[in-house]
Design a protein that fits this description.
Blueprint lengths: L2 H10 L3 H5 L1 E4 L4 E3 L2 E8 L9 H17 L4 E6 L5 H13 L3 H21 L3 E9 L4 H17 L4 E3 L2 H11 L28
Antiparallel strand pairs: 1-2, 2-3, 3-5, 3-6, 4-5
Helix pairs in contact: 4-5
């Protein structure tokens, strides 16, 4: 078989996990094709109520973190699901619907989504992400604790995210679900009975 055909066949058989580069959850974070990722959730600070001096202090503290851990990455995401696609669909349905009773129901749905979105509009989550490569369990443990200590010492309220929190973050990031923490580690795992003895057939 030619090399090109082999490559195409391999590509067709790749899973979603392989395509996004995620391998599995680890004791401390997430294993990927480019190393292990450690996620630290940081409580946001409302800088609109801080004085100019205090904002400058916050910036200086952030610079100290970046100096101490130069490879750390920062991400900001919504902490709740976005309903823009749902609203666009309902608006389209409303423009096509002539039955006044159905139109009334659709309008109520749109108002409901507007209300939810308004409540969650300011809901953001800020994360520090550390990428570790070729580290043993003890080294990862020490590094994970050191990073959390460095962030905390600079006045940021933080904690290392556990598996369920990482699941929820990934589900929101990939617009899959608001309840990502309830997703199984392996697709279909919830339908498999681990207690059943396969040899008893």
């Amino acid at each position: 078989m030619p090399i090109k055909e082999k490559q195409q066949k391999r590509k067709k058989g790749r899973s979603v996990q392989e395509l996004i580069g995620v391998k599995t959850f680890t004791k401390y974070g997430l294993a990927t094709n480019k190393g292990e990722l450690l996620f630290y959730l940081v409580s946001p600070t409302n800088i609109s109520v801080l004085s100019r001096t205090n904002v400058e202090i916050k910036i200086r503290h952030l610079m100290m973190i970046l100096s101490s851990i130069p490879d750390i990455e920062i991400t900001c995401t919504d902490s709740s699901e976005c309903f823009d696609d749902n609203k666009a669909y309902l608006q389209k349905r409303l423009s096509e619907e002539y039955n006044p009773k159905v139109r009334k129901i659709i309008k109520k749905d749109i108002d409901f989504l507007d209300h939810i979105q308004m409540e969650m509009a300011t809901a953001r989550q800020f994360l520090f992400v550390a990428r570790l490569k070729n580290t043993k369990d003890k080294q990862t443990f020490d590094t994970a604790n050191r990073i959390e200590k460095v962030i905390s010492e600079q006045g940021f309220e933080t904690h290392r995210m556990k598996e369920n929190e990482i699941k929820r973050f990934l589900a929101l990031y990939f617009e899959a679900s608001m309840n990502g923490e309830q997703m199984p580690d392996a697709d279909g795992e919830q339908f498999f009975d681990f207690n059943k003895d396969g040899e008893s057939e």
